[in-house]
Write a structure and sequence with these properties.
The complex is a heterodimer of chains A (about 200) and B (about 200).
Chain A (H helix, E strand, L loop, with lengths): L10 H15 L9 H13 L11 H26 L28 H6 L13 H10 L10 E7 L2 E9 L5 E7 L10 E8 L2
Antiparallel strand pairs in A: 1-2, 2-3, 3-4
Chain B lengths: L15 H9 L5 H19 L4 H18 L9 H19 L24 H10 L3 H12 L4 H8 L3 H18 L2 H5 L17
Classes of the chains: A alpha+beta (about 200), B mainly alpha (about 200).
Amino acid sequence: MDNGTEDDLDPAVERVRRDLAALGADEDSAPDVPPEVTARVITALRAEPAHTVRTTPLRRLQVIGLVVGLGAVVAGAIVGVTMLGRPEAPRFPVGPTAEKITVDRPAAIPLPDPQVIALLSQAPDYGPLADPQRRGSCLGGLGYPPGTTVLGAQPLDMHGQPAVLMLLPGETPETVVAVVVEPGCNGAHTGLLAKSSVTRT
Amino acid sequence: MGTFGAAGEGEEQRTDSELLAAHVAGEQYAFEELFRRHHRQLYRLAQLTSRNPDDAADALQDAMLSAHRTAPAFRHDAAVSSWLYRIVVNACLDRLRRNKTRPTTTLLDDTCHSGDPMPRVDTAIVVERALMRLPVEQRAAVVAVDMQGYSVVETARMLGIAEGTVKSRCSRARRKLAQSLDYFAMEGTAAASSSSNPPVMDTG
């Protein structure tokens, strides 16, 4: 994604771009809002109807939905019992047993824990997020402040599509947060595909 | 306007996500609390991408009403604050696109910081003031691309202009900012070939 011009190599211009990116997330330095502007917005918001949880649904639709739902449960139970009662169990290829397969994280992050942790000791490979401006924008969109250190990174394949895995500081020193985002991740659209907390070993 | 929010003194402040969820669940003042938490940055973004304070206020209100209504559709794939910023910037850029034929009005001056209790030599304030001195067309482009991370393609579409125009506006804006912030001298670059200071040509 080309967001730059021939100015990109100019250190002064690069500094401007960094300062602009920082300004975009720097709430503390934002000036006060004229009271009349705040009041006007608040008045408009209070005039809006609140979102409501439907507490009085149409009775007929509710009954129909209940019947369909119960029917699905019953059908699923029948299928399940039938499958379990089949004389021939499915054959699985000989391979590691469940005891040998380490599953210590949701399947969303397509790398096992040891490989994720190993990235901490390698130079980060940001792949399509190599541009610091775009990477900063991506991190901002994920809710991380400017200057957040990326502890590790690697391009990878996520269910058949290219993606980037980044390791970010966790809530404790013993953990890191692994996020997988689309290559076009930016402040407006992060394309977050997976997120998980990983314990350092 | 009265007090706001369900959290009283001593109660732990709810996260943005919790407030948004409460709003979607029907809590009356949750979105208002969310707005108040971020309204300074939201108004800053509106001012930076609007022709004048009136447009900024209009766009901010439109944006917050839109966010209020579409909150149930938010997928939490980004920070709530980023989502709010994006809605405000989108509203402002859309307003600029629809009003392209309007003449550029007087640039905003420093009165946006008239509420500061004391002058602060702060990078953010200095950069913001330099931004406000740019023409709104350049300001909007560089805020969208460099501050909010929109692609050139997205920015061009939102502003209803060509991608090349976005790039040239960003380039001019960045160089003007670098000049007004004296970054060229600080970084020791010989980039004196800015549009406002063309090099002396030897025609001899």
